[in-house]
Specification:
Order of helices and strands: EEHHHEHEHEHHEHEHE
Number of helices: 9
Distance between the termini: 33 Å
Number of strands: 8
Helix content: 25-40%
Strand order of the largest sheet: 1-2-3-4-5-6-7-8
Radius of gyration: 18 Å
C-alpha cells in the first residue's frame, strides 16, 4: 500500500464506531470538485502542476486498464509497520478503521492490508469510487470489509465529465460515460446484494448536477439501504484547479434549499436518502 496519511481519531467517518482513517495515495479519477489533490495527482508534492497522463487521453472501449489500472505495492515497510504499530496501541480504544484515499482499490496488496487489520480485531470500512468492481467483489466475497461507502458521481450520461476524465459537454462524452458508468453500475449491484453494510453518496455540485441528474441517479439506486447527498463546499485547492487544457467548469455550493428539494424529489425511489454536510 502507498500510505499518504493517518487521521488518528474520527467519530464521523465510520457510522456508529470510534475509528481512525488511513489514506492511500493515487486515484484513477480526476473529479474537478475533489478536495484532495495531494492524494490524487502524481508529482504534486514536487511542485508539478502540469496535466497528468489520465487527463491527456480519453478512455476507449479497448483500453480496460486505463484509467482503472493497478498500483503495485509501494509504501516503505517502515511506514506500513508504523501504521500497524499505532493500531496495536489503540486496541480496546478504537473499534474500526476507515481505509480511504485516493482510491484504495488501485493497490494490488489491498486484500492483504485489510485482512491484517481485521486479524487485529478491528472493523473495516472501505471508501471507494467503484471503478474496480472486480476488486470490490473479491474483497466483499472474502469478508474483508464490514462497511463500504461508494461515491456515485452523477447520472450515467454525465459520468465522464463529472469524473474529470473528459472536461467536455455531456453529449460529447457518451462513449467515455458509458464505460465509466458500467463499472459504477456493477459495483452498485455488488453492494446491493447485501453481503456487507454499505452506503452510497453523491457530492452535489452546482455546475455539475441538476435535479434531473439526481432523479436519474435515484432510479439507479432504487431500494438502496442508504444514500447521502453531500453539499459541495468550494475552495481554491481542488483537483480541477490543477488540470490544464480542459474546459473550465464553474463549480458552486448548492444551497440547503436546493438540496432539500432534490431529496424530496427522489424519496419515492430511495426512501433512505438523507443530506450530509449541511
Amino acid at each position: 500500500m502507498i500510505l499518504a496519511g493517518l487521521q488518528k481519531l474520527t467519530l464521523l467517518d465510520y457510522p456508529g464506531e470510534v475509528a481512525c482513517t488511513v489514506f492511500t495515495k493515487g486515484c484513477n479519477l480526476r473529479c474537478p470538485f475533489c478536495h484532495n489533490p495531494e492524494l490524487v495527482l502524481p508529482g504534486l508534492s514536487q511542485g508539478n502542476r502540469q496535466e497528468d497522463s489520465i487527463l491527456k487521453n480519453n478512455i476507449s472501449s479497448n483500453d480496460t486498464s486505463h484509467p482503472m489500472g493497478e498500483l503495485p505495492p509501494g509504501s516503505s515497510p517502515n511506514q506500513t509497520e508504523a501504521f500497524f504499530d499505532y493500531l496495536n496501541r489503540r486496541r480496546g480504544k478504537l473499534s474500526g478503521v476507515v481505509v480511504s484515499g485516493g482510491e484504495p482499490t488501485l493497490h494490488a496488496d489491498l486484500p492483504e492490508f485489510l485482512g491484517r487489520i481485521r486479524e487485529m480485531g478491528f472493523l473495516v470500512k472501505l471508501d471507494t469510487n467503484g471503478m474496480r468492481p472486480e476488486v470490490l467483489r473479491k474483497i466483499v466475497d472474502a469478508g474483508l470489509v464490514d462497511y463500504v461507502a461508494m461515491d456515485v458521481k452523477n447520472s450515467p450520461r454525465k459520468y465522464a465529465m463529472t469524473c474529470g476524465i473528459a472536461y467536455l459537454n455531456a453529449e460529447a462524452t457518451d462513449t467515455e460515460a458509458a464505460i465509466l458508468w458500467e463499472r459504477a453500475r456493477e459495483s452498485i449491484s455488488i453492494l446491493m446484494e447485501g453481503h456487507a453494510a454499505y452506503e452510497f453518496r453523491t457530492t452535489v455540485v452546482t455546475g455539475l448536477h441538476t435535479e434531473q441528474d439526481i432523479k436519474e441517479i435515484a432510479r439507479q439506486l432504487s431500494g438502496a439501504r442508504a444514500w447521502y447527498l453531500q453539499q459541495f463546499i468550494g475552495e481554491k485547492k481542488l483537483v480541477g484547479s490543477y488540470c490544464r487544457g480542459r474546459r473550465t467548469l464553474k463549480l458552486c455550493t448548492p444551497s440547503v434549499a436546493e438540496l432539500e428539494k432534490m431529496k424530496s424529489a427522489v424519496q419515492l425511489d430511495v426512501p433512505s436518502v438523507a443530506l450530509r454536510g449541511v
